[in-house]
Specification:
Number of strands: 0
Oligomer: single chain
Number of helices: 4
Radius of gyration: 15 Å
Structural class: mainly alpha
Order of helices and strands: HHHH
Largest sheet: none
Helix content: over 70%
Distance between the termini: 9 Å
Number of domains: 1
């Protein structure tokens, strides 16, 4: 019994673990002290930290459940976070490179699950 979900490539599982852990740790740190990310508004910083923690938890739960469809749900939610970050970066005149990279990674992860048959499989826990 491995940790990889049926219908999800190993690299997607690794990516979900990495992004999940990073998002939980970074989100918690930012909720404690928004200044670590140069966020002047502590309320907005804590909200940003909370949403990242939440998305990280979703990915970690998907890995724990070994459910490829849950991976897609977590990465799809991340895509919408990244779209918001992209719009915000463009609006602020900041570089859109980081949100674009995360969008590409999220689309690739969802595509990897789709290609491996994780969205068409009826098997949830194999």
């Amino acid at each position: 019994m491995g940790i990889r979900a049926n219908g999800a490539p190993t690299w997607v599982t690794g990516l979900a673990i990495f992004i999940g852990l990073f998002s939980v740790v970074a989100g918690l740190a930012i909720m404690v002290d928004p200044a670590i990310m140069n966020i002047d508004d502590s309320v907005v910083g804590r909200q940003w930290g909370g949403r990242n923690m939440g998305l990280g938890v979703v990915l970690l739960v998907a890995v724990a459940l070994r459910n490829a469809k849950a991976y897609v749900a977590g990465f799809a939610a991340g895509l919408f976070r990244d779209i918001g970050d992209l719009v915000g970066a463009i609006d602020d005149g900041a570089s859109p490179i980081v949100p674009i990279v995360f969008l590409v990674v999220g689309v690739a992860a969802i595509g990897g699950v789709f290609k491996a048959g994780g969205l068409t499989s009826d098997a949830s826990f194999d």
